[in-house]
Amino acid sequence: MSDPAAVADRLAIHELIAHYGNCLDAGDFDELERLFARDATFEIVPQPAVPGPLRDSRAIRESIEQRWRIVAQKQQRRHVMSNIVVADLEEITASARTVVTVLSVGKSAGSEIDLHGLGVFDDTIGRSDGRWVFLTRRLTMDRVDYFAPGWTSAE
Amino acid sequence: MTDRSAIKLAVCEVISSYAVFLDAGEFERVAGLFAEDAVMDISPPPGFMEVPISGRAAIVAALEARYHEVRLTGGRRHVCSNTIFECLSESSCSTRTFLTSIATFGDRPPELLLTGEYADRLELIDGSWRFIERRLTLDVPGSGAPK
Known about the structure:
heterodimer; A: alpha+beta; Nuclear Transport Factor 2, Chain: A; 3 helices; about 30% helix; globular; B: alpha+beta; six-stranded mixed β-sheet; 6 strands
């Protein structure tokens, strides 16, 4: 991995993954949408309460934003990304695996921080217009009922 | 971008890979992260495995046995963070990394299990960075931070 370009690419991919968490928790959905390729897909498994694979960056953004607006009324979430492993790095494609730890704190006085959930992102990533973007994101939450009672219903 | 930066990134990914592969039960990949004569230790001894363990095959066998025990009730996430480098050369390095271990369940919220710190030594072997030594010190309530 001594090729400087490969090191720069890996660091950029690490930053892309972190940036998703930052954008989501800050409610910056214009920026979040830019992290995905136009024809990207986003899938959450195995979650019966979640709609099927989301297709294209606008639909991904709209669905995630819709959920965030409901959750954010009562809770601030932190999607902490760690254990990032980049694999199969080529000139314009790569894959990555990341552990996400979700922490949640209520917005009412006296609320305690809740270790809310954990999961793994399996991503394919591509270079588009000189920057790395998500081509596919597949999120597997450890808890099967994590999104119960529904994707756009606060837990 | 220096060679040192490249080494640091590669080593950080080895440390992350250990946790990711272990939690996924991918033991062939776990094995590839250790030198053949690697040593693993946990202090204080955790009770669920005999330590220290010498040799890649024995380390992986112990980890795999523990993994299957844990899977009877749920899973684990070994969240690694705060890696720092204590020394670094073209062919060897030593690091320290925080561990946050979390128990996960399919039907209820996760539980914070323990924290600790890995002290690792790695060497560049056959073109890949591999652990030659992993020493995990667990934070025991009342004992202060690991030395």
